Structure formats: C-alpha cells, structure tokens
C-alpha cells in the first residue's frame, strides 16, 4: 500500500484528493489548520486510512515537528502533493497590502519549498513522486494577480528544476496548473461568499473532484512516464486578453 502526504486537505482540491486516494487504496497523511475539518475527514474515511496532522504550513517548528512525529507506514511517503496555497486580495500592486503579499509568499513558496526539501531524501529512496499545485496564473498574468501569479510561477519553475535535478533517481515531478475551479479559493481571496458565487455563476467551472481525478491519473501512470506540466481549464474559460490604457 502506498502513502500520499497532502497539504491543505481541509477543503477543495485537497479534501477531494484525500477521498480519491483513499478510494484507490492508498494511505493519506492529511495536513491543514482546521482541526474540525481534518477530524471529520478522518472519521469519514477511517483513521486506518487517513492520518490528520493539524498545523499551519507556514509554521516551521510545527511543520518539522509533525514530520518528525510520523512513524512506521505513515512515514513512508510515496507521493508529496503540495496543494496548500492561497490568494489574498484582488487590488492592483499599488493598492495591495504587504501583509497579503508576505502571506502568499510564505505559504505558496517558502512552506512548499521547505516541505519538499524535507521529504526529498525519502522520496528518492522510494522512487516516489511530487505533484505541485500551480495555476494558469503562472503563465497568464491578469490585473490584480501580481504576487499570487508570481508565487505560482515559482511553483511551476521549481517543479521543472526539480525534474532536471532528479533525473536518474526515478522520482517523478509534475506541475498541475488549473484555471477556474469552484472551491473556497475565491471566498478566501475576497472575504466574500457573494463574490465567490458571482464569479462562478453560469461558468460551469471545474470542481475539486475534477482536479483530484487528474492528480490520481498522474500519480498512477506507469513509473517510466512523467507529466512535466499539465494546464487545464473549464471549456468556458480562455486566456486573458491584452489590455490597452487609453488617454
């Protein structure tokens, strides 16, 4: 039986991925800040199948302590799914708050890199895999995306860099780059459930389950195949257009 560690498993893509991997016969180490959500997920899926770890991914001491506490079969990580991440604010750079920028960088970049570095030796020993959740924002800039898009560009580029460095180890690395997915993402970004409902209304967006199924497909490909990067959008969404400022 294989084991996957999923960060940000309390909702959205992370929770959907936990359900998909347990359904596929894997053990899941699920991390997140909200103990009630993780406890509910463990109760739903079974504590023999899912181990909840409650900590803030940005807290280095808590993160390292949680990893140190893994034992036995739970410590044998075959797949690291770096899913935890967020966007904060939609203002242009000149109107954004530095605190929002720092939180995004600490979560989407620093914590992801630190956890990946921590687990690399074991992943190499087990010829495992890393799946990083990036975004189409890594490729297509848009007004108000500023630092969020930059963090996701880092995730994409780190994935490709890891792929280059890990050649010959048997470790697979994939950057998953979704467009519009209806989760709590927009409500967290804007602080408004109404804003989230308005964005997704009539758009037929992708779901957390759609992305989880894609991750499952990538993870269960034959071990000699690697998906370097995978960009996906709902049919209703396309690339951002050019903007022209007129006098």
Tell me what the structure shows.
By secondary structure, the chain is α/β, with parallel strands linked by helices. The chain has one domain: 3-Layer(aba) Sandwich (Rossmann fold), CATH 3.40.50. It is 43% helix and 16% strand. It contains eight helices and nine strands. The strands form two sheets. The protein has a seven-stranded parallel beta sheet, with helices on both faces. Strands 7-8 form a two-stranded parallel ribbon. Helix 4 packs parallel to helix 5. The longest helix has 28 residues. The mean pLDDT is 96.
Strand content: 15-25%
Oligomer: single chain
Quick one: biggest sheet? 7 strands, parallel
Uncertain segments are none
The name CATH uses for the topology is: Rossmann fold
CATH class: Alpha Beta
Strand order of the largest sheet: 3-2-1-4-5-6-9
Q: What shape does the CA trace take?
A: globular
Number of domains: 1
Distance between the termini: 63 Å
Query: What's the CATH architecture?
Result: 3-Layer(aba) Sandwich
CATH superfamily: NAD(P)-binding Rossmann-like Domain
Radius of gyration: 18 Å
Portion of residues in helices? 40-55%
- In N-to-C order, the SSE pattern is EHEHEHEHEHEEHHEHE
Structural class: alpha/beta
User: What is the total tally of β strands?
Assistant: 9
> Counting H and I runs of at least 4 residues, what is the number of helices?
8
Mean pLDDT: 96
């Amino acid at each position: 039986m294989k084991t996957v560690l999923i960060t940000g498993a309390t909702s959205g893509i992370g929770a959907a991925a936990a359900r998909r991997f347990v359904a596929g016969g894997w053990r899941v180490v699920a991390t997140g800040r909200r103990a009630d959500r993780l406890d509910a997920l463990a109760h739903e899926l079974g504590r023999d199948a899912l181990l909840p770890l409650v900590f803030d991914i940005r807290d280095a001491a808590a993160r390292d302590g949680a990893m140190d506490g893994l034992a036995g079969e739970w410590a044998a990580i075959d797949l690291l799914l770096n899913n935890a991440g967020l966007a904060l604010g939609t203002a242009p750079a000149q109107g954004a708050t530095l605190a929002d920028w720092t939180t995004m960088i600490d979560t989407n970049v620093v914590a992801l890199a630190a956890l990946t570095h921590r687990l690399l030796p074991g992943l190499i020993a087990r010829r495992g895999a890393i799946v990083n959740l990036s975004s189409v924002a890594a490729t297509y800039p848009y007004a108000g995306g500023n630092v969020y898009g930059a963090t996701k560009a880092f995730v994409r580029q780190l994935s490709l860099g890891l792929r280059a460095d890990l050649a010959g180890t048997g470790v697979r690395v994939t950057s998953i780059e979704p467009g519009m997915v209806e989760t709590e993402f927009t409500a967290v970004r804007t602080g408004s459930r109404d804003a989230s409902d308005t964005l997704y209304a009539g758009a037929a967006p992708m779901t957390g389950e759609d992305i989880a199924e894609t991750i499952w497909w990538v993870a269960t490909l034959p071990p000699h195949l690697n998906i370097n990067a995978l960009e996906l959008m709902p049919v209703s969404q396309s690339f951002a257009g050019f903007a022209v400022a007129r006098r």
